[in-house]
Amino acid sequence: MNDMRKPVAVPAIGIVQCPDAALIALCAEHIANFHAYNDQASPDSKFEKDPLWHAYERTRDAICDAEPQTFAGMLAKARAAKVEATDLDGVVRPDGYSAAWAWDLLNDLIRINEGRHEPSPVPAQAGLSTAGMYQLIEQARDACTVLDEQQAEMPKNAHLERRLNGGHQRLLWEYQEHIARAASFLKPRDMGDVLAMLKLIDDKAEDLAANDQEEGFDFKAEMVALRRMVRGCLPIVAAELGVTLDEGLQGLCEVAFPEVPR
């Protein structure tokens, strides 16, 4: 996969807007184009004569060339990838362009995360939430379940199909693992976010139980991460119960999750 993707140009206007505003709009347009072409009663078998196909192809190719600059842009591209993976019969098959975009998103997540200069990789895009990011994780896991069921039905000698299926599953698992890591640094804002954070904590605790004997596994670092995630939840739960955290604990919570504009 080459890395010739480029940021989608944003029209110059007099207000500050998300750097990925044009990409987000492009992804929404592509989803509409995808459905418009697939939902037509009698699709023209000659692609070069079908204006709906040309519209779909234009936005599809533009997304292939785009490089998200924010998590909001990544989320828009992830939604387009999910639609792209859906067959006419409604079955999700994450291959082709959807698999390529998932790989792009994995690399985008690493690139955006490494490009930050804060002590911790704290996502700060408008509208981003712990609950929303955990929903992406659950969608990736659902797609893996579908792939696993498909592989169980494949003939034993379908070696190529099995290898491709396994590769897609590994890609999706790596994608959701990076999303989970980023979400664990996102300060909860309401009880929905707290629930998502608790699910992340449960996932991490399960990993601890399974991997604590592996060579190179940093158990102490994982425990520190778990404690930081709990501290992100405490102020929300306290506010919900109408109680005040003691000053020392409140300070620790603020250090663990500094307030950032979103």
Structure description:
This protein is an all-alpha fold and 262 residues long. The protein has a domain at 75-209 and 218-256. 65% of the residues lie in helices and 0% in strands. It is built from nine helices and no strands. It has helices at residues 21-39, 51-65, 71-84, 96-114, 130-153, 159-183, 191-211, 219-241, 247-256. Helix 1 (21-39) packs parallel to helix 3 (71-84) and helix 5 packs antiparallel against helix 6 (159-183). The radius of gyration is 21 Å and the shape is globular. The two termini are 32 Å apart. Residues 8-16 and 117-126 have low confidence and may be disordered.
Primary descriptors:
9 helices; mainly alpha; 262 residues; 65% helix; single chain
Tell me the total number of β-strands: 0
Question: Span from first to last CA?
Answer: 32 Å
- List the helices and strands in order: HHHHHHHHH
Average of pLDDT: 77
- Major sheet summary line: none
Range of helix content: 55-70%
Low-confidence stretches: 8-16, 117-126
Shape: globular
Total of helices: 9
What's a quick, concise take on this entry?
The protein is mostly helical and 262 residues long. It is built from 9 helices and no strands. The chain has a domain at 75-209 and 218-256.
Secondary-structure topology with pairs:
Elements: H1 21-39, H2 51-65, H3 71-84, H4 96-114, H5 130-153, H6 159-183, H7 191-211, H8 219-241, H9 247-256
Helix pairs in contact: 1-2, 1-3, 3-4, 4-6, 5-6, 5-7, 7-8, 8-9
